[in-house]
Fold this sequence. Notes:
Helix content is 20%, strand content 32%. By secondary structure, it is an alpha+beta fold. The chain has 2 domains: 1-79 and 274-422, Sandwich (Jelly Rolls), CATH 2.60.120; 94-268, Jelly Rolls, CATH 2.60.120.10. Strands 2, 3, 4, 5, 6, 7, 8, 9, 10, 11, 12 and 13 form a 12-stranded antiparallel sheet that branches. A hairpin with a 2-residue loop joins strand 14 and strand 15. It is elongated.
Amino acid sequence: MCDQNEDKPFSDGVSRRSFLGVGSAALATVAISGLTANAQLHEDIAKAENDHSLSDPGPENKLLFGLNPHTNTPPPTDHGDIGPIWFSFDLARKRVEEGGWTHQVTQRELGTSKDIAGVNMRLTAGSFRELHWHTADEWAFIEYGSARITVMNPDGTMFIDDVSEGDLWFFPAGFPHSIQGLGPDGCQFLLVFDEGGFSEDGTFLLSEFVAHVPPEILKKNSHLSSADIAKLPKEHLYIFPSKLPRSLAADRAAIGGSRVASAQQYTFRMGSMKPQVQSDGGEVRIVDSTNFPVSTSIAAALVKIKPGGMRELHWHPNASEWQFWITGKGRMTIVMPEGRARTMDFNANDVGFVPAVAGHYIENTGDTDLIFLEMFKSSHFVDFSLNNWIRRMPPEMATAHLNLDESGLKKIPSEKQPIIAG
């Protein structure tokens, strides 16, 4: 673990204006010297109160400022513009139907996120998200309660399973599927799609399919009578209430049992799996195509960071990162080429975005565990550790770039430490 006593704030002799001209090598040196968020934040705010350049005599949204103080009082390491990296589901329009609701954060709300869109949805007990399919792959995480899901394969086999808090599912694009809330209080879940411009309102619905096919075609195709066709829905159902289903075993048996059962597993128990990373600072559970083979387009990590801990300085070489913050509070800095850097604070129900290959960290700035998902449009989870890279260089190479002597270099951990304790 990093020796936290080695962390040192910038000296008072470095002004904000002079810092903006510092090169990337110096920026790296600053980064590895450590980040003590709460102390630094209080110091920055205190300086801001005495710095007329930062004064803001105009109107101010005090609630928003309180949630994200690093936006209005950025650390001196921030510089330039890297585009939006934050949005919140609490700002997204909520579509409310009898039986539940849904709202989404897509490229329309978070313009930098071109590869991934997210939907948060609630279904009451017994209620359905109507049978449907869509153009994008769907990856899901159960936040609350339990649900029954179904998905059909092109060969006519069916997968039916129940999922609960911490579980995942994956539905390939074009595969018809359903979601139904179970007792006692239905469910809430995050849906992640591998298209940034995806819209939950643009799905292909069973109700709309049958409502817009001529009756004589329905008769010919499905052997229905005119009386049968008169009973079919005339407009979309989308989310609607219904009775609770029978037992899982009964539903499986009702459609033909093992004879029509899917050979492919479309659910995964992420919350109950053993963490691949566990330390005094927290833990990480990683799910991608190596342990959930059907998930070929979304890789994910469920990260828990204890108070004061941090997700180490790192980057991902293969995809941008889309985050969903589940509980707790934290801050993140992203560093881009040409010295551009942005620091933001995050809270539960927020969405974060990190451009592909951009260096960043995430620190728990609260007094409870920070839990969030980091997701990627990729079949595999991959990251590089800054500490690991520096220690794998020949020492003279690291010294030439960072101005650190041998004793300084040896303070840097030589192995990956995805979560560093506070």
